[in-house]
Fold this sequence. Notes:
Layout: E1 3-7, H1 11-22, E2 26-31, H2 39-42, H3 49-63, E3 68-72, H4 84-89, E4 94-97, E5 103-104, E6 117-119, H5 120-127, E7 143-147, H6 151-163, E8 171-175, H7 187-190, H8 199-214, H9 223-226, E9 242-246, E10 249-256, E11 262-275, E12 278-290, E13 294-297, E14 301-302, E15 311-312, E16 315-316, E17 331-334, E18 339-346, H10 358-377, H11 387-396, H12 404-421, H13 431-445
Parallel strand pairs: 1-2, 1-4, 2-3, 4-18, 6-13, 7-8, 7-13, 8-9
Antiparallel strand pairs: 5-14, 10-11, 11-12, 15-16, 17-18
Amino acid sequence: MKTVFVIGAGPAGLFAANKLAQAGHQVLIFNRDIKPGGLAEYGIYPVKEKMKSGLRKQFAKILSHPNVHYFGHVPVGKEYDVPIELLQEFRPAAMIFAVGAQGTKKLGLPGEDARGVYSAKDFVYHYNLLPPFSKMDFSTGKRIAIVGMGNVMVDIARWLMLDDPNRQTEEVYVVARRGPFEAKFDEKEFVYIEDYLDRADFQDELKRIRDRLAAVGQDISKVAEATFPVLAKPDPGARMPRLRFRFLSSPCEIKVGADGRIERLVLTENLLVARDGGTAAKPTDRTFTLDVDTMIFAIGDVADPRVGLPYQSGSYVTNPAGNGNESGLYEVFDPQRGQVLAGTYVVGWARRASEGLVGIARQDAERGAVHVLKYLENVSEQPAATAEEIARSFARQGLQVVDKNDLNFLSRAEEKQARERGLASFKFADNESMLAAIEAEKTHSGSPASTG
Length: 452
């Protein structure tokens, strides 16, 4: 039996931990957030309670393994409370980083630091009440541009048009660098917002780009059967707020108002060109402007360089050679020294940012864990620090660590709040409230402090 550290408690980290624990190893999970779950907790649309509940049960079962220990509220990284070097001092046999894609992908546009310009990830964290994003300013106005055409765009548009309690949205523009045939959202998700589609505006938009689509063999009369089946349904008539699309368009500049907030978005018109069996956008010298007071990038994310792993082009560096096998895809590689960091692995979105959802994360984590298990077979056993020793070390450092028992107290406190408020579920929106609720539940139950 050896000790493995897993950094990150989203789906990838938890399913990797499960695989290792089932093989009999001690697994210590270190998580930035108080709660486990990652994007399964803070990325899934808020009202999808059945899906979230099912995943929470799976994660609770993983954490219930006696050889799995949890350290929540412990950010790991060179710019965080616990640098990687400190974890290494505890002598794990291997470390798996499942920290997701916490960096922000930007386009480098003039004005993109203006107020009212957000990344989709951060905006979703905000309305899903992930600290500290839950308390940050993500105010929106009346006219909002969402850049991107996938399911994240649909979720954000749904929130803005339907569920935001502070809703003042009048228009949502979906800005897509390619055309309607390249839409990436699922029909079952788009159905929530399809009645708000401005049908007349959409038809005008198709006519505007018709010739550019025809140049690559695309026929606008086929859009309904290909990617927008809503067009074949009866038109419910004009509704507010309005959902509009601007295809073959890429942001090129953000105009900032006197108040420091975005007031206009300048877009470059694109051509559509055939490439490698698909299509690609090619910019022209033509531009047009949208009057918007909010802009949200939904174009994917990058790995967080502040963690401290070798980093290039938005990703952690993995073994380029791979020794002729799949393990290289998961092994962290230091290009400066030209060697693999022995026993250090990445899985999930930490390996391939924004690649797939929970099911894909699970597959990737379990495949990565298989390679870690093979590595452990050839590693001599050394006495690693115990969970109790690590907890005492963190306490001396002043960290307020949350363990598995604490999670049970937190769950109990949130269930009480939900009952008292008549809600299906309740979630504390800041770490201080969560920690206070845990302590209150401990006091009420007379439970002693514990480590797990």
